[in-house]
Amino acid sequence: MYDLKTRLRALELVAQGRSLNSVSKQIGVSRSAIRAWQDRVEPLPRMARDCPPKPTDKASYAYLLGLYLGDGCISPHPHGGYYLRIACADAWPGLIDLCRAAVASVRPGASVAVVQKQGCVMVSTYDRHWPCLFPQHGPGRKHERRIVLVDWQLEIVEAHPWELIRGLIHSDGCRNMNWTTRVVKGERKRYEYPRYWFTNVSDDIRRLYTDTLDRLGVEWKDCTRHGKPYNISVARKASVALMDAHVGPKY
Q1: For the chain, how many structural domains are there in total?
Q2: pLDDT tens, 138-167?
Q3: I need a surface site. Which of 156, 181, 207, 231 has the fewest CB within 10 A?
Q4: What was the pLDDT predicted at 72?
Q5: How far apart are CA 67 and CA 72, in angstroms?
Q6: Is 155 within a domain?
Q7: How many angstroms separate the CA atoms of 51 and 3, rounded?
Q8: Which residues contact 145 (CB under 8 A, 6 or more apart)?
Q9: Residue 128 — pLDDT band, cuts 50, 70, 90?
Q10: What is the mean pLDDT of the chain?
Q11: Closest among 173, 165, 209 to 194, alpha carbons compared
Q12: Of 146, 143, 145, 100, the residue nearest 121 (C-alpha)
């Protein structure tokens, strides 16, 4: 379950006088595992399992990546393997169906469960290799650690940029109607216009979103909250039209 580099790093910290508890929290592995590595650091042959081949349905993977970065998490199963869980609001039943379909396309044969929570469902599925497929997984919250795509993920995103954007919007974004007023011939009139919002506290995830928008020719603007970057707005008419053609509102 853990590569040799992770094991050696844990033992190096222990050798520096760190407690098993503190090393466990930093590395994200159990104390019992670290204790076992003190006797044998090399993985046993039965534990040395290679990661699966990269996803063949690359468009579905790019969409699922966007959902994971927005509202997803990976957690270990007590007896081995991992759960991928993605939160989907009850208000968007179409999103729930799209999420289930994407999971099934990325890991054919994996069972997908929908667990009802207050105001949302958790689309949940078990597999031994979710950390291989989403190497951004790690201890702590996503906005508190670096989020950088590896080479094979970058290749998929470059081939299917709109699917990534769609997944990010479906998880942490929306399309709504804004309004403003203008004085025309002495009379104040109200105007409404569509806008896309994307909201995420991770600088790395927002940058991935805006870098992809740049490649697609979509104009965007940073909007701050309490002086800190928080929202990304797409409001220019031509850019909204592009987003409508490839993303559209949630349903």
Answers
A1: 3
A2: 888 888 888 989 889 999 999 999 999 999
A3: 181
A4: 96
A5: 6
A6: no
A7: 11
A8: 138, 139
A9: confident
A10: 89
A11: 173
A12: 100
Q: Residue 195: give the domain boundaries.
A: 168-246
Tokens found for residue 100: 């289930």
3-state secondary structure at position 138:
coil
Q: Which two tokens stand for residue 87?
A: 């939160």
Closest CA to 86 of 142, 128, 19, 151: 142
Q: Is 160 part of any domain?
A: no
Per the CB < 8 A criterion, the answer to whether 213 and 197 are in contact is no
Token reading at 118: 């207050």
The answer on pLDDT for 7 being more than 50 is yes
Length of the chain equals 251
The reply to whether 91 falls in a domain is yes
Tokens of 140: 């702590």
Residue 202 in domain? yes
Amino acid symbol at 49: R
For position 208, which CATH number holds? 3.10.28.10
pLDDT of 45: 46
- If you ran DSSP here, which 8-state letter would residue 200 be given? -
Q: Say if residues 220 and 239 touch (Cβ distance below 8 Å).
A: yes
